[in-house]
Amino acid sequence: MSTVLITVKCSSSGFGFGVDTVSKSKKHFVSEIFPNSPASFTNLEINDIILEINNKNVQNKSHNYLAKQIKKSTGEILLLVKRFEVVEIEETKLSTNRAESISLPIDTKNYSPRICQIAIWNGEDLGIQIIKKDPENGFFIVNVDENSPADVAGIRNNDIILEIDSISVKNMNFEDVLQAIKINWGTVSILVADENTFKHFRNSGAEISSSMKNIKILKNYKQWSYKNWLFTIDSNSLHSRLVRTKPGFNITSL
Predict the structure, then answer these.
(1) Are strands 221-226 and 229-234 parallel, antiparallel or unpaired?
(2) Cβ atoms within 10 Å of 152's Cβ, excluding its own
(3) Which residues form a coiled coil (predicted)?
(4) pLDDT for 134
(5) What is the domain-level CATH number for residue 165?
(6) Closest C-alpha among 134, 140, 189, 135 to residue 164
(7) Does the pTM of the predicted model rise above 0.70?
């Protein structure tokens, strides 16, 4: 990761970027850059984490505090941001000619995709930031908050999202992915692979999917059944809650 100092001039319609705040960690990140705005002509990028505004530290500050600092700025604003560097993944072009194609053995012992099943209670944040690198390589997780539901479920920095609830993200846009993982209550299942695993499967000509045999499944919760009820408890000690779910019904709090 690296820090970047950026100056954004103000126009009659503002600076031209939006900011979201992760409520738990109070990290402020650039969520939107408007076309043809002053921000769009700088090297500010979506998912940049804002550390300072006009030399004032805004880390661990509320979203309202950050908004006030932006409103105070006239003429231009000076931003110090932290940027996560995503490792480039080489593209592998497979031959359509069977005689020329090469099939490499898949090493599932050292290269294992993961299905991370995450339980969410009362609309808490998953604790991840996502960027779309390019149409070929898909969506990257660039930051995982420590002890967040995603962290406990085994999501790691630079993981590549391949499926959400067994649905491929290939044809999804950025907004579709955000909507798919935005749940208020219940569970979401995310198929991920680290960059080396992703490259290994592509070089072998194999596609990663949740239907693969012996795929690793990780959870941030535990479940057990008793009679007609399914009990679920969050395994993260910071968020221990007990719920019970009757098959076919929504989760209800005890």
Answers:
(1) antiparallel
(2) 23
(3) none
(4) 56
(5) 2.30.42.10
(6) 189
(7) no
